[in-house]
Specification:
This protein is an alpha/beta fold. It has one domain (7-190, 215-247): Rossmann fold. 48% of the residues lie in helices and 14% in strands. It has ten helices and nine strands. The chain has helices at residues 16-27, 39-47, 62-76, 99-127, 139-142, 148-168, 208-212, 219-231, 241-249, 253-270; strands at residues 7-11, 31-36, 52-56, 81-84, 90-91, 130-135, 173-179, 190-191, 236-238. A seven-stranded parallel β-sheet has the order 3-2-1-4-6-7-9, with helices on both faces. The chain has a two-stranded parallel sheet with strand order 5-8. The chain is globular, with a radius of gyration of 19 Å.
């Protein structure tokens, strides 16, 4: 399928992958629905695109998820592509993760895509087809240290994606899973450790395997791949070969633990927080 004049919902469109994806789809001729909580950023982005609609929404709220689908159908009469991209990222040592942290991550990273998907399916069936693209994370296979709420919710999200892929295989609805590797953005995670940079786990001077994952990709490269995925749907797409290797290595416990432990050591070097100064 082509992209021009397709109606595309993109969640988390106010920054990072979402913003780059909105730009790529908009410039390719799609009618993009920009969804996020930061209204001013969305409106500025919409002003730079040929055809864009802004919907301010808190995806942690089920009623907001339903409102997104309703408003889009009301305006355009159809939804061709739903890109579930928005994510809550909370950084904290696992022993300090609160119940609220887990609930917040699961509300945005799992329950929101589930609600959006369930709400959009009847419309896609009625119009004769549609495409759902879920932005997952291979990090849950690695067990990225200090990102427990994120990786746990993304593991559940991947399970949901693969379940609906099997249920709808052979139907008029396509479901794709996209695994980005380490993507460098301007957005900082929500941290329980004080101010930390996105790359506080990364060190290009570590061992060869760890260095393989330390070079972050730009969101624009992901956006171009998502446009290509929308044109030619596939079941699973990785950002690049190194991300695919990382997913494979994650199934080898000794390598997985070695890489993750190196990340822990890097984090301890980059921060003076006492909770990192534990005996190893």
């Amino acid at each position: 399928m082509g992209i021009r004049d397709k109606v595309v919902i993109i969640t988390g469109a106010s920054g990072g992958i979402g913003q780059a994806t909105a730009t790529a789809f908009g410039n390719a001729g799609a009618k993009v629905i920009l969804v996020a909580r930061r209204l001013e950023i969305l409106e500025k982005l919409a002003g730079s695109l040929p055809s864009a609609v802004v919907i301010k929404a808190d995806l942690a709220l089920e009623e907001d998820c339903l409102m997104i689908i309703e408003q889009t159908i009301s305006r355009f009469g159809r939804i061709d592509i739903l890109i579930n991209n928005a994510a809550s990222i909370i950084v904290s040592p696992s022993e300090y993760v609160s119940r609220e942290d887990i609930l917040k991550a699961f509300s945005t990273n799992l329950l929101a895509p589930v609600s959006l998907t369930q709400a959009v399916i009847p419309h896609m069936l009625k119009q004769g087809g549609g495409h759902i693209i879920n932005i997952g994370s291979p990090g849950f296979m690695m067990g990225i240290p200090f990102y427990a709420p994120y990786v746990c919710s993304k593991a559940a999200f991947s399970a949901w994606t693969r379940t609906i892929q099997s249920e709808w295989e052979g139907s008029c609805i396509r479901v794709s899973e996209y695994f980005p590797g380490y993507i460098k953005t301007d957005s900082k995670p929500e941290s329980r450790l004080g101010d930390v940079d996105q790359d506080f786990l990364m060190d290009s001077k570590q061992n060869l395997i760890t260095r393989l994952f330390a070079g972050g990709k730009a969101p624009g490269s992901v956006a171009r791949q998502l446009v290509a995925l929308a044109i030619k749907p596939r079941t699973l797409v990785y950002t690049d070969f190194s991300t695919r290797i990382g997913a494979f290595i994650s199934n080898i416990s000794s390598f997985r633990l070695s890489i993750a432990t190196q990340m822990v050591h890097t984090a301890r070097k980059k921060t003076n927080l006492k909770m990192f100064n534990k005996q190893t």
